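Hey, I'm writing a tutorial for new members on how sequence and structure tokens pair up, and I'd like a real worked example in the thread rather than a made-up one. If someone can provide the structure for the chain below, I'll link this post from the tutorial.
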Amino acid sequence: MWLTAPKNTWPRYSKTGITMQLVDTRRGVQYFTFEHHREYQQVQFKFLDAVESMDPNNIVLLLQMNPYHVDSLLQLSDVCRMQEDQEMARDLIERALYSLECAFHPVFSLTSGTCRLDYRRPENRAFFLALFKHLMFLEKRGCPRTALEFCKLILSLDPENDPLCVLLLIDFLSLRAREYTFLTRMFQEWESHRNLSQLPNFAFSVPLAYFFLSQQEECSELELSQARERAARLIQLALIMFPSVLMPLLDHCSVQPDARVASHSFFGLNAQISQPPALNQLTSLYVGRTHSLWKDPAVMAWLETNVHEVLRMVDARDPLVEESEHKRKMRYQSAPRNIYRHIILSEMKEATAALPLEVTSQPVMGFDPLPPLDSIVSYTRPERYLRHPSTLSLFFRSLLPNFNLQAGAGQDLNQGVNRLMAAMRDMLANIQFQEPPRDDNPEGDGDWD
């Protein structure tokens, strides 16, 4: 299975100096790692110099000399996307994926579910990131089913640690792809050991999946009534556990709550203000990402019925309400690093606005956002004296909220960004077509799905 077919507009591929090794096999699971040979390490050092050089032309030049250098492709893809050149941004990610795929070990399988990569090793991160960025493009282009398969693939590479926290995304893609049974089955199988119901996205999306299943005419009456029952029970639990989701969700769907709901303190402003910071990030991410799936009038009518049932429980002082409030206050004080990494990659403005200062005040680079604190480093860059903060890192940080450029640095940044954009336009004009099209490409130019 190929992740992406090479295009005849791409420069001719030649070995880059990336290889993959099988490191270990335990209990039927194989552990692999990408490795950078010496020549690739030299290019990597040049890339890091280019990022810090204040002159973004250097990345473009590096890519002209090394058209399959993965981190350069990831970084420039981000820039193209910010400039609304989706086509080029996508093309660069596909090229990065192709470059990594050419390095696969003969027994590394994308479909077995038993091949692992350790995100703590910097050489492995590009594969996770390229897959994630690729699936985001697929989803935007209306290919949610293929995007879901890529999401499952990322999860299979390190299901224990989930370094890009794709568990925050897999429910949305399942609903978009109408893979309701997959989502409900995953929830049943994972809940006991992973507590998925503690994530607002699973707490709300799973009952929504059951609701959609309860609308499917081809199911038996028993299946339909079971789905209806589960949908009601789980959405009530979700609303009791995460009351702060309701009002922003209705707001995003342009729906006015009725007088009883609007005036009740349980779903009121206090629900937003009193929630811990990490929960605020998760609920903002969920509402920003999935609100369009809740707009259906049938969904809204079902939600309203259950909201009233929850208010009845609140007024009756059901012990579950107090229990949930206690859990909420104890948990969610601060999010693990993989959640922050996911929020940065998702670029959901509702959630990035809720990121804490310790995340937004450091440079966040597209080719390695928030590196793990326990990285396993196999080679290090020669030390060199650095005079300037990097234009690129300032540029990427400037896209995050809470960013405050020191006085005097703004002009440098603007010039740097303008140079970067000019260089990008130049690259678009030259780099893609520097070779005549090859006719020895049997795959042609087709998309994967």
